[in-house]
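ESCALATION

Customer reports they have been waiting on this structure for their group meeting. Please prioritize. Original submission:
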Amino acid sequence: MALEQFQNSTTKQKNTSIINNEGNIIRKNPRYQGQLSYLREIILSDCPDIDANLLSEKLDVTFLTAQILLSDCYEKEIKK
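Update from on-call: job pushed to the front of the queue and completed.
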């Protein structure tokens, strides 16, 4: 039981690390700011409850990129 919990926590840490590294790469993409603006100004006005699957199809980006775009968009909205 303890070993399983350790393995799960280690896996979560690795996944978080991978997502953070990938997120930094995605955010450095020259298209990222444009995609984020398009999401905020166009897509969310038409479909405010869009999920990462549909967004990835609409923007023709990876699922991870869509998740990061949504996360960053909502995070910036909360800070306002």
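Sent to customer with the following note: Residues 2-79 form one domain.
Escalation resolved.
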